[in-house]
Every structure is written in C-alpha cells, then in structure tokens.
Amino acid sequence: MNLAESLLYALKDHGARQIFGIPGDFALPFFRIIESSRILPLYTLSHEPGVGFAADAAARIDSAPGVAAVTYGAGALNMLNAVAAAYAEKVPLVVLSGAPGRGESHSGLLLHHQAKTLDSQYRIFAEVTCDQARLDDAASAPAQIARVLASCLRRSEPVYLEIPRDMPDVACGPVMREEPATTDPDALGACVDDILERLARARSPVLMVGVEVRRYRLEERVALLSRRLGLPVVCGFMGRGLLAGHDTPLIGTYMGLAGAPEVTRLVEESDGLFLLGEIICDTNFAVSRARIDMRKTIQALNGRVTLGYHTYDGIPLEDVVERLLARVGTTERYSAFPHQQQPHGLIADGASIGPTDVATAINDLMAARGPMPIASDMGDCLFTAMEIEPVALVAPGYYATMGYGVPAGLGIQAASGERPLILVGDGAFQMTGWELGNCHRYGWDPIVLVFNNASWEMLRAFQPESSFNDLERWDFASMAAGMSGDGVRVSTRAELKAALERAVATCGRFQLIDIALQRGVRSATLSRFVDALQQRSRPSPAT
Ligand code: S1T
Ligand code: MG
To answer: The CATH number of the domain where 241 resides is what?
Structure first.
C-alpha cells in the first residue's frame, strides 16, 4: 500500500464518503491514486470556493468528515474562505493540499504558486484548522494521519494535511485509529448533578440546541432528553433546521428583537437557559432584547460545560447527553408551549412576489410533496428561510459568507442522494452559481430559487444611500440551458406556484427559478434584524 491509499482508507474509516476537488500539478500524483484506487468517489468542481462549500455541506448533512482536495497555493488559498467558514461553524472538514516535493524545496528557485515562503500556506491554514500535518515521511505518516483525523472528529473542526507531490506513491503502512480519550466519570457525574440541580431550581428552564448537536449526531438523543426533561426547545438563527423531523417540543427560532416575541420572552426571561452545543455569537445573540444573564446559563460546547462561574473541562457533549438520559426518569413530559406557526396557502394570483410568498410556496410544496433538504446562501434568502417549516438546512448562519448556497446544494445531493432546494440571492449566485454546470455529469438535479432583487439588498438595508448596492437584473433563467438545466423567470405568485410544481415534476436536470423581486422589498425578519442592530448601535441618549 502507498501513502495515498493509506490516507484514503483512513478517511473512509473515519466516515468520509466522497472527495470534492480540483487538481493541479502539485496534486496530480495524489489525484491519480484517488481516481485509480476508487476508495472514495471524486467530484471535481469548477472553482475552489465551491469545492470547500460542497465538502462543508456534505459534512453537515452527513455529520461526518467532508473532504476537499486541492493543489498548492492557487488552489488551497483560493479555498481559504470556505475553510474559515467551516472552522467558525464547527464543521469537520479535511483539507488535502498538494505541495512541492522534498527535493524541489531545496532547488533554490522560487516555485510557482509560492507566496512568501514554502511554509506560508501551512501557517495560513493553521489559523483556520484545529490540527495539521505535512506527510513528508512515510514512517511517521500513519500516526500523523491518525492524530489529525481524530482531532477533526473530536473537535468537529477542519484539519489540514499537506502531501508533497513525491510522496503519494511511497510505500506506507496502514493508519490505526487513535483510541478516543476517556472522560473522568466522577467529573461527569458532578457536572450532570450540577446541571440537573440548576434545571430543577429554575422557574422557567429552556433548552436551546446548537450546531454541535448535529455535528456529534445527537439529534435523536437530544429530542428524547427534551421530552424526558419536559423542557421547551428553541434553536438559534444558526441552528435553524436542527431537530427537524424529530419528536421534540421545538417551539421556534430565537432571534431576539428580530424573532417571534413569545420565543424571545421565553429565552430572555429564563432563569435556567441550557445552551447545548450552541455558539454564543452575534448572529445568535446580538439582537437580544435583554442581555442573556450568563450567570444563570448552562453552556455545553467545545468539550466543556460552564454553569455560571463553574467550568468542567474534558466533558464531551455526547457524554453529557448520555449521562443526563441515564439520570432522568423514562417518563416523557411534553412542554405546553405551542410551535411557532409558519405561513401556508399561497394566493396564486397576479400579484408581485415578496419573500414571504416564496416561503409560503415552499411550505405548501413540502406539505404536499414531503420535506426537501435546503441549502441557503447568505442574504435575505436565509432570513426568509426562517418562515419555512423546519427541515434539514445548511447555511452559513454565523460566518455569513456568500457563495455557499449552490455548491452546498451539490454537496448535499452528492452526500445524501436527496434532491435539495437551494435558496440564493442574485449577488451570491454571481459568485458561485455557475457550479450548476457540473450537475449534468453527476446526475444532480437541485431546485434553485434565485431571489433576484437586482440588489445587494442586505447591504442596502444597512446603508440605503449607497448606489453601489444596485445590481443589474441578470437573466439567470436564460443561462440555465447553457449549463444543461432548465430555467424560468417568474414575476407573479401564480407563476411562482406553477414553476415550483413543474420543477418538482422534472427530474434529472437542475431547475432554476429566477424570482423577480422588487429592489427594497425585504423579508420581515431581515427588516427586524437590521432595525434591531441599528437600534443597538445608536449611542444611548445622554442622561
Ligand atoms: N462577500 C462575501 C463572500 N460574503 C459576504 N457576506 C459579503 C461579501 C458581504 C455581504 C453581506 S450581504 C451582501 C454582501 C455583499 C449582499 C448579498 O446580496 P444577494 O446575494 O443578492 O442577497 P440579498 O439581495 O438578499 O441581500 C453580509 C452582510 O456580509
Ligand atoms: Mg440580491
């Protein structure tokens, strides 16, 4: 066995199911073995940001490592933003980069694709990954791979492996998985006692679930725990879609002043807020009506549990959930809080389309045809998604990068085989929408809804006076055929409804619905979000 095969078998053994990539001369020997060995299927795309986003989405939908293989320099650095997004949102992404061979780096010449020094890329990726290794020695490579892949799974964060181009063919031993670290049972017991005691003492405890619940495959167990604890469950903006389809008292999405007042009140007035795998970031908490009192909050994240001023280190989320389940009785008590209602029953008339109409049409479609996983880009399409009934959703809800939606939809279909719905703004489509041209050769057929408001509308909401937010209205519908898909422009609610029904009935080719929205028309959620942020940033009146 050679080093490349040893690495590929290890990736598969750690749960990876495919590789997304774009080769280059520093990576050709490695890609040749990916292709010839058939250990993992390879999907090449057109631009490295798309490779990173697709691998990220595959990791999210699978709750398993996503793999992105690129060449050195121009390839890897082109993908940096996608890896940073994965790091921020705790996605287990494995970056495999080709690199100059050992001999080349002593040639004395500056190499093509080299930035500052030959080590620059390694150092750059150390800033957006939790572990790294350069596989330039076959004797130590198996242990390095085992350590790095174990870090990826344990931390649920990206990792970086650099493969000099003279190494893939070198004979190499197999990778032996690292044994998982054991949790101190006494510390775990004390921690869970502390959690239960605080929840029992609280007048209005609330469970808020975050992305780590999905990353560590705990949705089913957490749904059971919520029923046994009898707690109302909410998610944050970033966690939208969590526990979808699970039997749990999920009452809605907490968005502070931008969200449903009853959910905001419940969370912000709680004296026992239990944040399970939730990241305390601005998109989740910046528009709180009242600051969350962290002294009354329990947070389990990043392998530690913090209760007020107490912290228990080395306590993985899975152990917390399992020990809680072992401690609470088996009786299931449902919380009495009603689920947030979403809009249904689109009036299919000649009226122009607003964002809520799109959400309503999707809710009607899924009620009739069953749920579809959603990949959403950043922009008002993601705020509109808050009005769609909870389904599996992948989106950059915290890091907030554009360009994610279309490649992420391809990653969902490659990884799960399910046909996704893609929500994307016109500005974001201009960035990575062209990856749709790769659907035909892989048999992918996403349904793509382009929120075409001829605008960087989110930016206009913050700074209406800037005319640079005006985009031309691109005719995306007519571009679909050139990429072996079908496209249609819709301007009325009746046209939207008909186009969605036609799209669902047409399989085997991607379906692009170019939705004409008026510039300045925004979802209610985005409007509230921007108003709340601006209100918060205004200096308080002098007293
Ligand atoms: N570049 C990238 C890669 N990601 C970003 N988030 C931005 C720039 C800044 C930015 C936004 S929202 C936005 C930009 C440029 C406009 C989005 O336009 P479009 O996709 O058409 O969606 P909509 O019209 O619904 O806003 C965030 C605030 O940083
Ligand atoms: Mg737009």
So the answer is: 3.40.50.1220
Cα 457 from Cα 379, distance rounded (Å):
8
pLDDT tens sequence across 243-280: 999 988 899 999 998 999 999 999 999 999 999 999 98
Looking at the structure, do residues 26 and 132 belong to the same domain, yes or no? Answer: yes
Residue found under tokens 């007048």: 203
Tell whether ligand 1 has an atom less than 6 A from the beta carbon of residue 458. yes
- Ligand 1 centroid to 458 CA: how many Å? 6
For ligand 1, say whether the CB of 380 is within 6 Å of any of its atoms.
yes
Backbone angles phi, psi at 455, to 5 degrees: -165, 150
Q: Are residues 143 and 192 in the same domain?
A: no
Dihedral (CA of 375, 486, 361, 431) sign: positive
Measured in angstroms, how far is the CA atom of residue 500 from the centroid of ligand 2?
20
Query: What DSSP string describes 154-215?
Result: HHTS-EEEEEETTSTTSB-PPPPPPPPPPP-HHHHHHHHHHHHHHHHH-SSEEEEE-THHHH
Ion ligand 2 residue ranges (Cβ < 5 Å): 425-427, 453, 455, 457
Question: Which of 456, 521, 523, 527 has most ligand 1 atoms within 8 Å of CB, for mutation?
Answer: 456
pLDDT tens digits along 101-117:
988 878 788 899 999 99
Residue range 169-219, pLDDT digits in tens: 999 999 999 998 899 999 999 999 999 999 999 999 999 999 999 999 999
The residue whose CB lies within 8 Å of the most ligand 1 atoms, and thus the one to mutate among 83, 378, 534, is 378
The residues, any chain, with a CB within 8 Å of residue 327's CB and separated by 6 or more, are: 192, 196
Residues 229 and 288 in one domain: yes
Instruction: Read off the pLDDT band of 329 (50, 70, 90).
Output: confident
Q: Which of 6-20, 194-208, 287-301 has the lowest mean pLDDT?
A: 287-301
Q: Is 66 helix (H, G, I), strand (E, B) or coil?
A: strand
Closest C-alpha among 515, 491, 511 to residue 501: 511
pLDDT for the residue numbered 174: 98
pLDDT at residue 543, rounded to an integer:
52
Q: Rounded mean pLDDT of the chain?
A: 95
- Express each pLDDT in 118-131 by its tens digit: 999 999 999 999 99
Q: Is the CB of 403 under 6 A from ligand 1?
A: yes
Cα 404 to ligand 2 centroid, rounded to whole Å: 14
Torsion angle defined by CA atoms of residues 317, 126, 29 and 146, in that order, rounded to the nearest 10 degrees: -40
What is the structure's pLDDT at 541? 66
Q: Give start and end residues of each alpha helix (H) in 386-520.
A: 405-416, 426-432, 439-442, 457-462, 476-480, 493-505
pLDDT value for 366: 97
CATH number of 375's domain = 3.40.50.970
User: Is any atom of ligand 1 closer than 6 Å to the C-beta of 456?
Assistant: yes
Is any atom of ligand 1 closer than 6 Å to the C-beta of 452?
no
Q: Which domain holds residue 44?
A: 3-164
Nearest-atom index, ligand 1, CA of 380: 25
CA of 456 to the centre of ligand 1 (A): 6
